[in-house]
Amino acid sequence: MSQQQVDxxxxxxxxxxxxxxxxPLPWRQFSIILFxxxxxxxxxxxxxxxxxxxxxxxxITDGDETRVGYYVGLMHSLFFATQALTVLHWSRISDHxxxxxxxxxxxxxxxxxxxxxxxxxxxxxxxxxxALNGALNGNIGVIKSMMVEITDSTNLAQAYAxxxxxxxxxxxxxxxxxGSLSRPADRFPNIFGHWQFMKTYPYFLACAVPATxxxxxxxxxxxxxxxxxxxxxxxxxxxxxxxxxxxxxxxxPATPTGSTxxxxxxxTPQRAKxxxxxxxxxxxxxxxxxxxxxxxxSALSFLDIAFRAVQPVFFATPLxxxxxxxxxxxxxxxxxxxxxxxxxxxxxxxxDLHDRFGSKTIYSISMAAGIPMIVTLPIINAVARAQGLSxxxxxxxxxxxxxxxxxxxxxxxxxxxxxxxxPNQASLGATNGIAQLGVSIARTIGPASATSxxxxxxxxxxxAWIVYYYLIALVxxxxxxxxxxxxxxxxxxx
Length: 494
Description:
It is a single chain. This protein is mainly α and 494 residues long. It contains 25 helices and two strands. It has a two-stranded antiparallel sheet with strand order 1-2. The chain is globular.
């Protein structure tokens, strides 16, 4: 009885008293997963530097510069729009046929679509390439499922802390490749000036690099990535309506006795079998805890991508119109520095912060940091108008980046909530698919809505703050959603 009183009145004491030692991460498989994650940010970000010029070159705007941004935004949104239509299906399929075949299909789709994008000379060719890119790529949710399956409760937070490395690296390297290798015949005439192919398809080389990387990732996956679904069916049997009851166990490659890879890969089937389960139908997954976790992920992603869309536009907009008036190289340096520091911050601090404060506290604080992060935008403009690009301006820019890093802590927390929300181990892929579906929709709408609000703000001085009201409203929506999250994770059957 006294023990129950302690649990109810001082819930933080029990975890401290019974704290388990953190299991070492299975670095061989874990590093492969991080490597695979590079493919998506590379392919999605490589087009950013040359997309406006590409739109001008194909002539879809008929020389109207005001329409360039519209078509560029459409290209970016197409990926997430088509991904929203298919990501849940890919995640559910991975629960049946295994994670590895779906990841291989996704990497193949990324590679083919990027080669096609580089060879496209019409707007509709670009549209079809981007649509194919999103439709064939269901890897985001599937890789998150694998991350849970190769870890346990003691090292899951540590594993998620490493995820920003891939996205930060890909987000920094992709634009660098796109900016450096687009129009190579003009930029490097001594090397490519005599290649008629490079003159005819001036953006092929920039697209070919991430496409070739995706092929390399496909080979690494095929040869070295171990399957984490313990039993699976063939695609043919799945089409015939057979489930795991007709499946056979997966035999992964042997690992040396005593290695962390051996411990993790052997433990995964045991956890799945312990919950006795097979993948649940979609209706059975639409339970409150899954909807709450997925809703918080969508709210966080909506806010984050909306701010990421506005931030570089704000930096580039002239001072008199409400921005900071920076040139592209300086903006690129700010974003690159942020990417590196953010990745290191997540790696070195998130796991310890999570062990100390828990998912709910960190998530709530991270979402609340969004309000001062957004308020720094008009403050930066006001100080720059008064003092120019003074030291104080850069201090406030640094503060904005620091608050942005705090906001990014919320991602690892919400991934942990999504993993805990899954009704059983066998439905983990579908649960991640539901969450990713909402995020893909949010990422389709977020950038266009935020940049449109910003354009409206700078065109109408009387409504100059409307974009900031909009972003703060997104923060408030995220804070309200976070109130639905429990202080302690939902108990999983696995």
